[in-house]
């Protein structure tokens, strides 16, 4: 659980030096949790800024450029504004569930972050069923959406939440199956092990054709999982106001907003870890400097995030029936076929390895 | 077999779309259409078709080409134009002729529909490209388009 980077070792010995051994474990856990919380709140804010900038560039605009250098602090200012706003709610809302819903969403997405290996040994929790844990955790988020839509006593919110339920349940299947295809190659669910396997070539190269198909399916289904355009029927602005979070304001709205962006990052991070070698540098060019792994990891993850933004600003929104047709008639059969193909390739040792 | 060709066409058209937006993304640096308005106040030029307000151009001799035919007044759907005119003896020909005294334009009522400009037979009025039309008093929105002392250009007839 504890990692062997020098900095964490120093902190560990510093904590042990003034504390009884029994409570050091809890203290360190809390310290790590707080560090992650701050880091990913900042990351979420940065992603919002990135989305706005990228959207602007796609639409030949300039984007936020007033607050700070190139609008750097725009989202921080927005977050402060949201913090200071009144928390409103509807009459006859189910107050308990209404207040609970945002936390489901934000906590499930923050929990998922714990298992990613950001660099060699820089991993909060190296669980041996990593991928399984990620898939399980990312489906808890939808409960938050359903609760939020159900309890806020608003028809738009309810319709949005129900659509989200349909969508997430369908597309979870594709995410799971496409990851399963890659598990056939790695033979392990543990994320650090998966990266270890990729030292002889990233999985998307190792598994060539089926891996590329799996990656395409994963990106489509992953975009749908995060309820982003072109699959954003959950909050289709032109139809449903803001969808399931129509009735939320202030910080609770900010949680939903932040969770959406962190989820996007999680999808990109899973993609990075499983398909593109996680923190491994291309051709091992910086193998001697382990902390550069963080840089490679984020570079790859942000490239995938950019891809998802590119989708968003290119494609028009699907209708619900088209969405389900895409999943059940196209993605799922192709996926099942793809697993068989991958199994044959692994069986006959047709993988490409360096 | 249409199943597979559907997939192929789907992927191809999606990639085409991404190619188009990708091109825009790469060119956004040069081609941004955003005007950062108060900053570029001195250099900002409105495009030609922009409809700011109706003006009457005068040449260097303080002459305009409005004959006072009132066609713009009739064309205006909401009565933003009032023409005050008079029959006077033209000093050159010695005939009686309709001449404008005041061409009054109410910017506050104008909807920028352009019908008056289309209706004018002698192209005496046109659009100006200015857009900073805010004033502190409503009465400032009523403008007299012909300048004091101006007269109609010789040769412009009804
Ligand atoms: S632009 Fe239209 S509304 Fe304005 S003065 Fe001319 S005719 Fe009237
Ligand atoms: S502006 Fe044109 S249409 Fe109006 S009175 Fe003068 S000549 Fe006639």
UniProtKB/TrEMBL annotation, chain B:
Residues 57-86, 101-130 form the 4Fe-4S ferredoxin-type domain. Keywords: 4Fe-4S, Cell membrane, Iron, Iron-sulfur, Membrane, Metal-binding, NAD, Quinone, Repeat, Translocase, Ubiquinone. One of its GO terms (cellular component) is membrane. It comes from the Bacteria. The keyword rRNA processing does not apply. It holds the Pfam family Fer4_7. GO terms for molecular function: 4 iron, 4 sulfur cluster binding; metal ion binding; oxidoreductase activity, acting on NAD(P)H; quinone binding. InterPro entries: 4Fe4S_Fe-S-bd, 4Fe4S_Fe_S_CS, NADH_quinone_OxRdtase_chainI. This is NADH-quinone oxidoreductase subunit I. It comes from Salegentibacter flavus.
């Amino acid at each position: 659980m504890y990692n062997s980077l020098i900095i964490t070792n120093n902190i560990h010995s510093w904590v042990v030096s003034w504390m009884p051994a029994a409570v050091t474990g809890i203290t360190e856990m809390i310290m790590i949790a707080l560090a992650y919380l701050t880091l990913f709140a900042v990351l979420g804010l940065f992603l919002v800024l990135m989305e706005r900038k990228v959207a602007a560039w796609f639409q030949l605009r300039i984007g936020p450029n007033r607050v700070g250098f190139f609008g750097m602090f725009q989202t921080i200012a927005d977050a402060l504004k949201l913090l200071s706003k009144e928390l409103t709610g509807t009459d006859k809302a189910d107050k308990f569930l209404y207040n609970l819903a945002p936390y489901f969403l934000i906590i499930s997405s923050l929990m998922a972050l714990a298992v990613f290996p950001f660099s060699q040994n820089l991993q909060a929790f190296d669980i041996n069923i990593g991928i399984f844990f990620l898939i399980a955790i990312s489906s808890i988020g939808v409960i938050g959406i359903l609760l939020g839509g159900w309890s806020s006593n608003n028809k738009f919110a309810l319709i949005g939440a129900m659509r989200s339920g349909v969508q997430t349940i369908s597309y979870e299947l594709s995410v799971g199956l496409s990851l399963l295809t890659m598990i056939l190659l790695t033979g392990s669910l543990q994320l650090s092990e998966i990266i270890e396997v990729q030292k002889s070539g990233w999985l998307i190269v190792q598994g060539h054709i089926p891996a590329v198909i799996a990656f395409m399916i994963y990106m489509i289904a992953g975009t749908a999982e995060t309820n982003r355009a072109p699959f954003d029927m959950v909050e289709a602005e032109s139809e449903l106001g803001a969808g399931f979070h129509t009735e939320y304001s202030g910080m609770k709205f900010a949680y939903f907003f932040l969770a959406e962006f962190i989820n996007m990052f999680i999808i990109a991070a899973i993609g990075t870890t499983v398909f593109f070698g996680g923190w491994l540098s291309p051709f091992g060019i910086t193998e001697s400097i382990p902390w550069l792994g963080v840089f490679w990891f984020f570079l790859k993850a942000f490239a995938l995030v950019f891809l998802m933004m590119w989708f968003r600003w290119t494609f028009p929104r699907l209708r619900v029936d088209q969405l389900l047709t895409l999943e059940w008639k196209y993605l799922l059969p192709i996926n099942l076929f793809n697993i068989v193909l991958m199994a044959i390739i692994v069986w006959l040792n047709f993988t490409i390895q360096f | 077999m249409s199943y597979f060709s559907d997939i192929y066409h789907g992927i191809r058209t999606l990639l085409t779309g991404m190619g188009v937006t990708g091109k825009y993304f790469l060119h956004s640096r040069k081609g941004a259409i955003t005007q950062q308005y108060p900053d570029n106040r001195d250099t900002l030029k409105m495009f030609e078709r922009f409809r700011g307000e109706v003006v009457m151009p005068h040449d260097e001799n303080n002459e305009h080409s409005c004959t006072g035919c009132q066609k713009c007044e009739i064309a205006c759907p909401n009565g933003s134009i009032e023409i005050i005119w008079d029959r006077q003896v033209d000093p050159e020909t010695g005939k009686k002729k309709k001449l404008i005294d005041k061409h009054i334009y109410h910017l506050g009522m104008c909807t920028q529909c352009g019908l008056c400009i289309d209706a004018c037979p002698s192209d005496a009025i046109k659009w100006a490209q200015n857009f900073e039309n805010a004033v502190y008093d409503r009465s400032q929105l009523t403008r007299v388009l012909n300048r004091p002392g101006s007269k109609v250009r010789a040769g412009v007839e009804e």
